[in-house]
Specification:
five-stranded mixed β-sheet; metal-binding; two-stranded antiparallel sheet; Type-4 uracil-DNA glycosylase; about 220 residues; alpha/beta; Ura-DNA_glyco_family4
Length: about 220
């Protein structure tokens, strides 16, 4: 039997061997703290696992934690998270009833100059694939009525690499692998970067209102 040390030195290509079978969210979170399923754990401060109620009807999936999330260990607590909070409130979706997570649980970034915030770097497809056992376990445990994919990385992770948010956002589709209904929209960080932030925000808000209507809240 391989030891933990030998598994780590072999640079496992997937998180699957670290995911405890049949575990609840608390146990999954504890196990994820020691995940070595890809190399992103090395420069990151810590694993940023999902957060929210285990019986949430709505799950939001982003790309990966950002600089603030990496330091605090919680998803969506930085600038994009604050914009998400605002949009959820305006769409009449209570954040406290939402399970929030990311397709990738470690922060991938470009090293920053002294005193500056680290800038995120898009995870490679192999890194996303390596981390998906955690997301599958979260969906299986929470069993949400609807998953909202925030951005292209999350959408491709759940709906396949051929999915295009720009063409299919705001529509309900079925993710057969996860056995759940899904709506894809932009990531709130894309709204913050948009040339016309007001227009981008209104589009994002419109998608969240479709989410509310689908849930019947």
């Amino acid at each position: 039997m391989a030891t933990t040390a030998s598994r780590t030195s072999a640079a496992a290509r997937s998180a699957a061997e670290f995911v405890p079978e049949g575990a609840d969210l608390a146990a999954l979170r504890r196990a994820a703290a020691g995940c070595r399923g890809c190399e992103l754990y090395r420069p990151a401060t810590q694993t940023v696992f999902g957060a929210g109620p285990e019986d949430a009807r709505l799950m939001l999936v982003g790309e990966q934690p950002g600089d603030v999330e990496d330091r605090q260990g919680e998803p969506f607590v930085g600038p994009a998270g604050r914009l998400l909070d605002k949009a959820l409130a305006e769409a009449d979706l209570a954040r406290e009833g939402v399970y929030l997570t990311n397709a990738v649980k470690h922060f991938k970034f470009v090293p920053a100059e002294r005193g500056k915030r680290r800038i995120h770097k898009t995870p490679a497809r192999g890194e996303v694939t390596a981390c998906l056992p955690w997301l599958r376990a979260e969906v299986a445990r929470v069993r949400p009525a609807l998953v909202v994919c925030l951005g292209a990385t999350a959408a491709k992770a759940v709906l396949g690499t051929g999915f295009k948010v720009s063409e299919q956002r705001g529509r309900v589709t079925r993710a057969e692998e996860y056995d759940v209904d899904v709506i894809a929209t932009v990531h709130p960080s894309a709204v913050l970067r948009a040339p016309d932030r007001t227009e981008a925000y209104q589009g994002f808000l419109a998608d969240l209102k479709v989410v509310r209507e689908h849930l019947g809240t």
